[in-house]
Amino acid sequence: MLDNPGTATMQGAAPDWRSVRLARGFVTVVVSTVALLVLCWAVAPSAVSAGALAGSLPFAAIIAIVGLGQMLVVQQGGFDLSLAGGVSLAVVITTHLPSGNDAALPSAILLALAFATVAGVANGILVGVMRLNAIIATIGINAVLYGAVFAVSGGVPRITTPLMSAIAGGKTAGIPNSVLFALALMLLVSFVLKKTVVGRRFEAIGANPAAAHAAGLRVRLHQTMAYVYAQLLYCVAGILISGITREPTAFQGDSLLLPSVAVVVLAGTSLLGGRGYPISTVVAAFFLNQLSQFALAVGVPFSAQTIIQALALVCGIGVYSVRWKRSARTRASK
Amino acid sequence: MSMAKPMKAALAAFALTTAVGATAAMAETPSWCGPNEASLALLDGFGGNSWRLVTTASGAEEAAKCPTITQYEYADGQGNTQKAISDINSMAARGINALVVFGDAGPAVLPALTNAHRSGAVVVPYRVDVGGAEGENYAKFIGSSFVEDGKSWGNWIKEILPEGGNILFLSGPAGNSQGLDELKGMKEVLDDKYVFVNPEPFAVTNWDPALTQQVLSAEIAKNDKIDVIVSDFGPSLVGALPVFKEYGRSIPALATSDGNSLACFWEQNKDANPDFKLFTVATGNDNVRLAVQWAVALATGGTPPADNIFKAPVYENSVTGQPNPVTCRPDLPGAIYLSAELADDAQAKAVGQ
Lengths: 334, 353
Description:
Helix content of chain B: 25-40%
CATH topology of the largest domain in chain B: Rossmann fold
CATH superfamily of the largest domain in chain B: Response regulator
Oligomer: heterodimer
Structural class of chain B: alpha/beta
CATH architecture of the largest domain in chain B: 3-Layer(aba) Sandwich
InterPro entries (chain B): Bact_Solute-Bind_Prot2, Peripla_BP_I, SBP_2_dom
Distance between the termini of chain A: 11 Å
Domain Periplasmic binding protein (chain B): 49-264
Strand content of chain B: 15-25%
Shape of chain B: elongated
Pfam families (chain B): Peripla_BP_4
Helix content of chain A: over 70%
Number of helices of chain B: 11
Largest sheet of chain B: 7 strands, mixed
Signal peptide (chain B): 1-24
Keywords (chain B): Signal
Distance between the termini of chain B: 24 Å
């Protein structure tokens, strides 16, 4: 592990700028995104018009935020299927409890964050402490979260408050606020992961829990916290959705689960755990969103839209599979 | 999802209670309610939106009009085909006499319906085509004339755009039969002067407000001229329509189905958007009433209704005010449908507000 330059920075808190050069996921995803933008300009210019971007960027921001949450879990070798329930619960709490009344919004947001923390701790204990399979544990918590969604909303959408709509749906200096939220969260996650002791330990544990345990790190605590951070990020995404969409359904999280995993994989985070790539994850979210805008702008049938997205994912995953084999071979030869 | 079950049971019981309360004054027994006692179940493929809650409450209200219906059950398939099938099987196994089924999953639920039919239950699927044949797989299918809706929209479009124009048609999931029928209806009325700018046969939105917003912004970017938007679920458009402001364009004319939130949105935005005319057909909550009448008539030995297809009437027209002007009730929740027979406050209760 020490020989592998990719994990060299995990040995201490000091930043190693070589890791920036080595983030091949970043290069891949940026090159793909630029290529896609060029393709849009050439084939379907409407997909990159100011109006289309303003309309679609908030949704890219949402995918970016849930992607960051999923990334933290994947970094610990886990998988969080309770994303759908977490996002949906945040949506219904922030639309149903205030019921159009701005004054009740702050308490609803606090309540949503509290629920997210509880759900995250529950996931974390089941997976990190009790060692349940992550997929099974989080699917169970997802069902509980949906129980709460029904209890709060009865499955009915409610119109959002004007304040929430102004905050999440508004713009600052021409940039949708939701995008600013996503960028701020990306910077926060990057800073904590890459520049703080907690973050460095978090990545080290993801890369090799046994070695980290031997080094005296609190492996279970960090693994548990991954689910808490993730739920908090899903919660923020849910709160933003409740402002971006005027009358969100009670199941708004369902369609985000697959994109969240897709952006994590496209950004180059190994599903086996280890290093996370917050910036690449956010760029991948923009890429995925732009891809669906491209398909819509070209006006291909719905079936073809789905196929285009699936192919992009297969290509993305293919790129990394090839890289893994090569680096494994390099490692073996050392 | 076991936690949701008591919720649903409570909801169904509550809906029935309100329904009984609302109709207690109505002493006269309708002709479709026969002398034999029977139990009735309403089986939903997906019960999680306000439209379905109002529809469920309407079904319960209709069933409560018949005193020989001694037991009323409700089950929600939660959009899960497997659960919808098991709901049908379990109701049949419990010996419920009449099943009214919203078969969202289409032909996938047909085998379960056929089994229930063969075991002697009166099975009445409604609104969504489940395939099969009357008398063989189920007792009676109560369709909704989506072709008729398409014709109503087409006629209105001809009135407001006699010289032709560009139409953007949005419907639900890819290939849903409702959207296809509506398109058929519109094409019967509209000639080549009217161009559909969406991908054939319609732009797919899954009736999801977030996806609708994305699809609409892509279509606006692509098409400089959209004269009229046709959507078969108006309320899901409400969140998306402000996208036109991003482009500095007026919201165009809109032909759709009714909803209180849509009417209020029109009220608030008509002045800033000179081209924003609104035309709605009734969203069709009362389709379930016709299905319940048929199921009850067949199970209790009553006289079946004359109709076997529900035709949604034209509801609002902002241009002529006929048959109704656009009606916004800001005092009531946005997620109710003033076109439905169910009383406004009963609807508000049904959607939990």
